[in-house]
Prior knowledge:
This protein is α/β, with parallel strands linked by helices and 298 residues long. Helices cover 37% and strands 16% of the residues. It is built from twelve helices and nine strands. The strands form two sheets. A seven-stranded mixed beta sheet has the order 4-3-2-5-6-9-7. A two-stranded antiparallel sheet has the order 1-8. Helix 3 (75-81) links the parallel strand 2 and strand 3. Helix 2 packs across helix 3, helix 9 (234-246) packs across helix 12 and helix 11 (263-269) packs across helix 12.
Amino acid sequence: MILELFTPIINSRLHLANDPHIPPLRDVIRRYELFARKSLGQHFLLDGNITDKIAHYAGDLEGINVIEIGSGPGGLTRSLLKTKATCVYAVEKDERCIAAIKELQDVYGERLIIIAKDALKFSIPENVAAPRAIIANLPYNIGTPLLFNWLDDIARDPKAYNFLTLMFQKEVAERLFAERDTSGYGRLAVMTQWLCDVEHGFDLPANAFTPPPKVTSSVVILTPLAKPRYPAEKDALEATLAAAFGQRRKMLRSALSTISNKAESWLVAANIDPTRRAETLSIEEFCALARLLGDYRA
C-alpha cells in the first residue's frame, strides 16, 4: 500500500524543524546547495512524517547503535536521533552532505557519529559495537552490492544485526521476497531468504522524494535468522546459484555444467530432475545441491 504522505504517523513525536536549535531542512539544503547528484544515486526524503515512520517501523531502538547509509541532507538522520537509539552512525561520502549534517552534532553531540567513507568499503561489524541495526534510504545505484556485503556479515555472525530496515527501488525490493516460479526469483532472493526473514513494509511514490525518481520505492525489513534456513556452505551455495541463474533459461544439467562436468549426476544425487530450470528450485533444493558440490565439481 502506498503511504499517505500527509497523514501524521501514530504517536509521532515533535518534528526537529520545531526545535529552535536546528534549522529547517530546506534551509540547510539551500545553504549547502545540496542538489541531488545522479552519479551518487541520490533522491532525498524530506517529509518528516515519512522519515519518522521509517525510523520507528521495525520497533524500539533503545540501546541499539543505528547505522544510516547515505544520509544526504539529514532528513532521516533527524528522525533517528529522536529515537532512543544509543548512537546514530551516519555513513556519507558526499562532502556537501557531511558539512550539512555536522550541524546536528551541535545539538546531539556524541550521539551522532559521522563516518566520511564510501559505504561499500566500510565494515560495520569492525567499527560499530553491537547491538546494531541498519536503517537507510539506500542510494539506488549501490543498494544491491551493499546488501550482499551485509549478508556476508550475517553469514559470518547471525547476530551481526538485530534487523535491517532498508529502502530500495520497488523492483529490487520485490526480488528480496520473490517466490520460486516467478520472474523475480533469483540469487538475491535465495541468499536473502536463506539468512533472513523478509517483510515488505510499505511503498513510497516518486513524489515523496526530491528530485522524484522514475520509480516507486519500497521499505523492507530483514530480520537475521539464528542460523541459516537450511544447512549449506555459503561459498558453495553462491557458486551453485551463480551457475544456475547465470543461464536461467537453460535446463539445470546445462546451466550447471559450467562448474561441474558431472552436472547430471550431481542433480540426480540431490533428487532433482536435471531438466528443471533454476527458478523452479526451492531454497532447500539449492542448499542440497550446494552440500554436494564438492563431490561433483569439475
